[in-house]
Amino acid sequence: MNPNEQKIHDYVKYSNASKTLE
Fold it and tell me: What whole-number distance in Å separates Cα of residue 11 and Cα of residue 8?
């Protein structure tokens, strides 16, 4: 996995976490 894909993966992970908290 290249750094850019990791960055996208983290973004999606945090985005989903935010939706769960809301």
Answer: 5
Distance CA 20, CA 1 (A): 26
Tens digits of per-residue pLDDT, 1-22? 688 999 999 999 999 887 776 6
Stated pTM of the model: 0.40
Checking 10-19 for CB contacts under 8 A at 24+ apart, the result is none
Provide the CA 10 distance to its chain's centre, in angstroms: 3
The CA angle 4-13-20, to the nearest 5 degrees, is 160
